[in-house]
Structures are given as C-alpha cells and as structure tokens.
Amino acid sequence: MSHCTLWVAVYSKTGATLLGPLTTQTLFSEFGGPCETSHNADIGDPVVRWDSLANRWIINQFALDETGTTNRLCVAVSSTEDATGEYYRYDFGYQHFIDHPKVSVWPDAYYAAFLGGAFFEACAWDRNRMLRGADADQQCYAIPSPTIPIGSDLDGTTPPPRGEPNLLMALNPAHDSLQY
C-alpha cells in the first residue's frame, strides 16, 4: 500500500503563500493521542470547510490509535477567521472505520457523515462549544446504507429558518431509491 502525505497551505488573494505548505497532522502538534502520533493521520481524507456564520475554518482528518482498533476523527476549528492563526482541536472516536467524511455546517451543529461498510454513521458535533474552544461531545447514529449520505450545508451568510433541521440523504442504487 502506498502512502501519500497530505499538505495544507494558505494563500493570499494575490497568490502569496501565507502559511505552509505543512502536513495536516501539524495542526495537532502537541495535542497528544492518535491525532498527533498516528502514522496514517496524513492520509486520512482531510476536509476543509468554512463556517460563514461564525467566520471560522473547520479542518478534519482521520487517525487510528496505536493498536489500530479505535477510529478517530481529528477536528480543528479556527479561533478566528484567520486560517493561519490558532485552532481549537478535538478528537472524536468511532466504533467502525470511518471513510470519506462529509462535514456540513449548520447553525445548530457541525454534522459529519461517514461510510462504514454496509452502513453509514452520522454525527452532530456541539458547534457552539467548539466555537468557544470548550470541551465538546457528539451525538451519533448508524443506519444501513450502501453509500455516503450528504447533509444539508449552509453556504452564504443567510441562515435557514430558525429550527430548520439538517437533512441527510443517501442514494441506494440497489433499490433505486433515496434514503432521507
């Protein structure tokens, strides 16, 4: 199996390099645990998102612990809109291998969905606490699905109507149907 190292860099609008390139694992330097030490953290489907309501960056990558039995998702949320600044860091654990994370920004939470074999796992992370750098937890559930669900995602600065839920939808090609 070949490994490639994943890099992140921040550029100005004129193309000048403001930060990096550096490995995505560098964000978790001195954090501890598999987010810092995993040999596979830099190959883990990283995702970079922009939270337009809070003007924050969200970066995630997966990592395995030393035994390879605990699947982790390492999440960094910028403390300001400056992508080159400080980040609040989180380490969420999952029972199954999480593949192809899809992260959605929504006013009430950050939502994440993963493929895990014949099912998908969907989680809501405590966005309000993460924006403050406080300890944050997640609520997750798994349902049978052959594909990765896509969640509602906020683009722009106009939030959805108050209380509007984040919706997940997945294609089930075996039954020619959508899961909602």
Can you characterise this structure?
- This protein has 180 residues and is mostly beta strands.
- It has two helices and 13 strands.
- The strands form four sheets. The chain has a four-stranded antiparallel beta sheet with strand order 3-4-5-6.
- A hairpin with a 2-residue loop joins strand 8 (109-116) and strand 9.
- The radius of gyration is 17 Å and the shape is globular.
- The chain starts with 6 loop residues before the first strand and ends with a strand.
- 31% of the residues are buried.
- The mean pLDDT is 83.
Primary descriptors:
single chain, 180 residues, mainly beta, four-stranded antiparallel β-sheet, 2 helices, 46% strand
Largest sheet: 4 strands, antiparallel
The average pLDDT value, as a whole number, equals: 83
Q: Would you count the extended β strands for me?
A: 13
Residue windows where pLDDT falls under 50 for at least 5 positions: none
Structural class category? mainly beta
Strand order of the largest sheet: 3-4-5-6
Q: Please give the radius of gyration in angstroms.
A: 17 Å
Which series of helices and strands comes N to C? EEHEEEEEEEHEEEE
How much of the residues is beta strand, in percent?
over 45%
Give the terminus-to-terminus CA distance. Answer: 36 Å
Shape: globular
Continuous helix count? 2
Oligomer: single chain
